[in-house]
Amino acid sequence: xxxxxxxxxxARQFALPLPIAxxxxxxxxxxxxxxxxxxxxxxxxxxxxxxxxxxFGPEGVGKTHMAHAFxxxxxxxxxxxxxxxxxxxPAAGGTVLDDADAxxxxxxxxxxxxxxxxxxxxxxxxxxxxxxxxxxxxxxLASRLRATTAVGIGRPGDALLAALLAxxxxxxxxxxxxxxxxxxxxxxxxxxxxxxxxxxxLDRAALMAAAAVTRPLARAALADWEGFxxxxxxxxxxxxxxxxxxxxxxxx
Length: 252
Prior knowledge:
The protein is of the alpha/beta class and 252 residues long. It has 2 domains: 26-152, Rossmann fold, CATH 3.40.50.300; 158-222, Helicase, Ruva Protein, domain 3 (Orthogonal Bundle), CATH 1.10.8. It is built from 8 helices and 5 strands. α5 (158-171) packs parallel to α7 (192-209). The longest helix is centred in the C-terminal third of the chain and has 18 residues, at 192-209.
């Protein structure tokens, strides 16, 4: 044993790849003004004109999570546009097609739309823009896309982001002070995927340091990551007033 080593030093802990449960339950979809209309439509697939609906919005607003939750709840199969080729087989109940505006083969999408219509099966298309604006070469496909009811999803509001961050920490059983969460929210990109990645990085950092998630730890763990930006007060004292706990949006 080396002399002079402090007897109270805590052994360094190494982060293990612990499995984290990712829920796709409908009740775990947090609602605010940005997604309320889309969630309302997803709750009533029997009212979709022609049994077909599209939800669209920019990257990072939770479209894929919403689509997975809907497919899991309804028992519909989940497909991805870039992998859609050939003649898709019929599916009992319905089909969710994520990244539908990036299909590998346009005839495959046209066949899927026609097949679902003929069999009376539901079809949910997910993309970044409304289907009427997708750049497609097949006239028949363009016509069917223009006839598809579409509802947009906007950027999440502050309350929704705060509730999501709190839930992500809770899922990993991390207790993080409300003021530290507020500090993080002011510096992280306003995207669900970015919040999830930030929480994963902080979880690993806390395990490695055998310490709680604090402002200094978070700054060190996220400093070189593109999803995190420093604020104007980052050279100030580490003491700051505690932020009030954010209101939780309604859970449907």
